[in-house]
Design goal:
By secondary structure, this protein is mainly α. The protein contains 15 helices and 4 strands. The strands form 2 sheets. Strands 1-2 form a two-stranded antiparallel sheet. One of its GO terms (biological process) is transmembrane transport.
Length: 337
Amino acid sequence: MFAYIIRRVFSGIIMLLLVSLVTFILFFASPVNPARLSCGKICSPALIEQNSKALGYDKPMIVQWGQFVKGIVAGREFPEDASLRKSAPETIATCPAPCLGYSPLNAETVSSELGPRIPVSASLALAAFVLWMVFGISFGIIAALRRGKFLDKLLVSAALVAYAFPTFFIGLFIYQFIALKWGLFPVPVYTPLTQDPLLWLQGLVLPAITLALVYLAGYVRLTRAFMLESMGEDYLRTAKAKGLAPRKILFKHTLRAALTPIVTQAGLDLGLLLGGAIITEQVFNYPGVGKLAVQAATTYDLPTNVGIVILIASFVVVANIIVDVLYGLIDPRVTLA
C-alpha cells in the first residue's frame, strides 16, 4: 500500500508539472503583452520594457516556467534583481514557498490572494459534498429497492427536474425568495469558522443547498443504476440463499460493490469544487476562489489565472490519489499493485 501511494504521488507531481507547462504556454502565448496590462492607461514603450524585465516576461517561456516551478518549491522575489535588492529593498516583493506568482494588477502575490479565499471555497464545497452524498446515495438506494414503484418514479423524476435547472437559477431563486422575499432564512454571509462556528454554519446552508441540488440528481441516478446492477450478481443470490439478513446483504455486499464508481465521480466533483464554485459564489457574493477567478478573467490578470488553474489541478490530483487508495478499502476485489 505504501509503495503504491508513493508511486501515485510521484505520478501526480509529474502531472502537475505538465499542467503548469501547458498553462504557461496557453496563457503567456497570448498576443497581448502582460507587461502592457500592468502599467496603466498611460504606458510608454520604455515603461513596458521596464515592466517586462522586472516581471521576467522578457525571458524565454521555458525559463519563466522553470522560475515558476522553483518558486513553488523555494519561493521567489519580484523583481529578481540583486542590485535593486541592495539599493531599494522596499520595492522587492517576497513570495515564500509555495509561490504561485505575482499579480502586478493587484500588487500582491497570488498566494496572498488565494490564502483567505481557499477556506471559503473549501467550506462551501465540503458542506455541499456532505449534503449531496448523504441524500443522493440514500435516495438512490431507496429508488433501487422500490424499482418500478411510485416512490422510484417520484425520486427519479424529481432528480431530473432538479438537474434540468441551471445553478444560477437555483441560486437566484433561493436567494431572492427564501432569503429576501419570504424571510425563511437569514441572508447568507460568510463568517470564518474560527470567528463564530454557528454563524459559519448558518451562512453555508443556502449556498450549500444550491450546489447540492445540482449534484444530488446525478448521484441519485448513479447510485440507483449501480445498485440495480449489483443486486443481480450471483454472489448476492448466494448470500440470500444462505439466510443472511437483508440489511447485511444491502450494506455489506450490494452497496459496497456499487460504491466504487460513485467514489470515483465524487472525488472528481469535490476536487473541482474545492477550486471554487464560480456561479454560486457570484450569486451569494462569497469571497472564494471562484469569485477571484471571475475577477482575474475579466481584468486579464494572467498570473492569478495561472495560479488558480494550478490550484484546481492540485485539488483534482490529490482527490484522485485518495480515490485510488479508497478502492482497495471499499472493494476487496481491487488489488493495489
